[in-house]
Write a structure and sequence with these properties.
This protein has helices spanning 19-34, 55-66, 89-102, 112-124, 140-148, 196-206, 222-232, 262-267, 272-280, 295-301, 316-329, 332-346, 354-361, 371-379, 398-413, 420-434, 438-450, 459-466, 468-487, and strands at residues 6-9, 38-41, 105-108, 154-157, 164-169, 173-178, 186-188, 211-215, 238-242, 245-246, 312-313. By secondary structure, it is mainly alpha-helical. The protein has four domains: 1-72 and 243-326, HUPs (Rossmann fold); 89-188, Glutamyl-tRNA Synthetase, Domain 3 (Glutamyl-tRNA Synthetase, domain 3); 330-377, Helicase, Ruva Protein, domain 3 (Orthogonal Bundle); 381-487, Orthogonal Bundle (Arc Repressor Mutant, subunit A). The strands form five sheets. Strands 3-4-7 form a three-stranded antiparallel sheet. The structure holds glutamic acid. A motif ('HIGH' region) lies at residues 11-21. ATP binds at residue 255. A motif ('KMSKS' region) lies at residues 252-256.
């Protein structure tokens, strides 16, 4: 039990699930589950100004839909709760006071004006801002007095100004920084809540987290976290900082571009399993050519030591390909279910057999959002250009197209049993009778029934789905159009 791996996903309720956050959640989940460990959910809501309504639901829903099931968390409880930081306020204060006792932290009463001045000075000198330890010198009595007067304060970490602090990261290796570069960061804010910088250390320790998985943007703060662990005398967890996810060589994937959140991707017609699979490969690979993984497959294959440190580029072309692969593999009924909202945008006729349409579509799609433009002609014959009847390779002309359509119309009219097989036999009989190549009959029919250059399925499939009446109607429209073109 002592060595059980425990990881956590610790999102801030921002109102959306950034792809980078989802990857962190996935990697944390995989690291735990690969070793039969525990995966915790902790809500980091200490930045009260940034609270967003409905943000928690997005977090819960994302974990649920992706199958990243947590073993402990605010909604299901667990032995080391509460799992929401705002409910742990007193815990942080208590631990911060312990550090004050040890001289590892101190009360700071500096006003905003004074801090602004320090900041302006640092800017003028082109130096990074660092608090000047002004309040570290306050005596116990002075502090008592200020507290008694109700002066606003924060509690800061008291970092040494000499020497070095080193930390180890599984992905980035050993990193050393001069202590003179460590800012005395705020641990407890003036509203009494902790900063992320403090809360993450206290919580990860109290929740027995063995592997801290998070984005590389926290790397530069890790020395300060180590100093906190050391000040408390706590074991330092294993750090797994994940590489940034880039839109291209120079730009990080960002919410502003509208393509960085899980919800955006689902709305664009990606399947959740495909997205999760793709995200797993953003910065990790199994060491062989395999790319398609179920969640269970990932659990088995995932070795976090194979995470790369170089930035991962979010490659939409690859994601699209992968999505197409997932779409192809879906059982047809399941595909129809997922496609339904897209079908509904353009198809209203009850007579259309959606599963039949799905069978034609599934192999030709990368994104569900492509569906409406591919199937809209089933609802209504679009306006189309008469030139579409002219196909060079099929050797079609207006004249032979007209002959084919008239022949098909006559035969279809007397066809009693409207099935795919019968439609096909009828067309092939016509080919034989007219002594032409297949294309001379099939191309004009497909054009007449769809009004489109590219369609899922060919003449037989489309006619079958449209039904007899609608097919005849469309053939007649084609015949009229061709006659008109010939007589011009
Ligand atoms: N609350 C932090 C965030 O959402 C989590 C960082 C961490 O995983 O430690 O970025």
């Amino acid at each position: 039990m002592a060595n059980k791996i425990r990881t956590r996903f610790a999102p801030s309720p921002t109102g959306y699930m950034h792809v980078g956050n989802l990857r962190t959640a996935l990697y944390a989940y995989l690291i735990a589950k690969h070793e039969d460990g525990d995966f915790l959910l902790r809500i980091e809501d200490t930045d009260q100004q940034r609270q967003v309504e409905g943000a928690l639901d997005i977090i819960y829903n994302t974990l649920k839909t992706t199958g990243l099931k947590h073993d402990e968390g605010p909604d299901i409880g667990g032995p080391v709760g509460p799992y929401v930081q705002s409910e742990r306020k007193n815990i942080y204060i208590e631990y911060a006071k312990q550090l004050v006792e040890k001289g590892e932290a101190y009360y700071c009463f500096c006003t905003k004006e004074r801090l602004d001045m320090l900041r302006t000075n640092a800017e003028a000198l082109k130096r990074p801002f660092r608090y000047d330890k002004h309040c570290v010198k306050l005596s116990k009595e002075e502090i008592e007095e200020k507290l008694a007067n109700g002066e606003s304060y924060v509690i800061r970490q008291n970092n040494p100004t000499e020497g070095k602090t080193t930390f180890d990261d599984v992905i980035y290796g050993k990193i050393s920084v001069d202590n003179s570069e460590l800012d005395d960061m705020i641990l407890i804010k003036s509203d009494g809540l902790p900063t992320y910088n403090f809360a993450n250390v206290v919580d990860d320790h109290l929740m027995s987290i063995t592997h801290v998985v998070r984005g590389s943007e926290y790397l530069s703060s890790a020395p300060k976290y180590n100093r906190l662990y050391e000040a408390f005398g706590w074991d330092i967890p294993i750090y797994v900082h994940c590489p940034p996810i880039m839109k291209d060589q120079h730009h990080k994937l960002s919410k502003r571009n509208g393509d960085a959140s899980f919800e955006d991707l689902l709305a664009k017609g990606y399947l959740k399993d495909a997205v999760l699979n793709y995200i797993a490969l953003l910065g990790w690979n199994p060491g062989n050519e395999q790319e398609i993984f179920s969640l269970q497959g990932l659990i088995e294959a995932f070795d976090y030591k194979n995470i790369n440190k170089s930035p991962a580029v979010f490659d939409t072309i690859k994601l699209n390909w992968m999505n197409g692969e997932y779409i192809k593999k879906l059982p047809v009924e399941e595909f129809t279910k997922l496609a339904l909202p897209y079908y509904k945008k353009v198809l209203t006729k009850e007579s259309l057999d959606l599963n039949k349409i799905s069978e034609l579509l599934q192999t030709r799609l990368e994104l569900l959002s492509e569906i409406p433009e591919q199937v809209d002609f089933f609802e209504e014959l679009p306006e189309y250009d008469i030139d579409m009847y002219l196909h060079k390779r099929m050797k079609t002309t207006y004249e032979n197209s007209l002959t084919s359509l008239e022949g098909a119309l006559a035969k279809f009219e007397s066809l009693e049993d409207w099935t795919f097989d019968n439609i096909k036999t009828t067309c092939m009989n016509l080919v034989k009778e007219l002594e032409v190549k297949n294309g001379v009959v099939l191309w004009p029919i497909r054009t007449a029934v769809s009004g489109k250059k590219f369609t899922p399925g060919g003449a037989f499939e489309i006619a079958d789905i449209l039904g007899k009446e609608e097919t005849l109607k469309r053939l007649k429209v084609g015949i009229e159009k061709l006659k008109e073109a010939i007589n011009k």
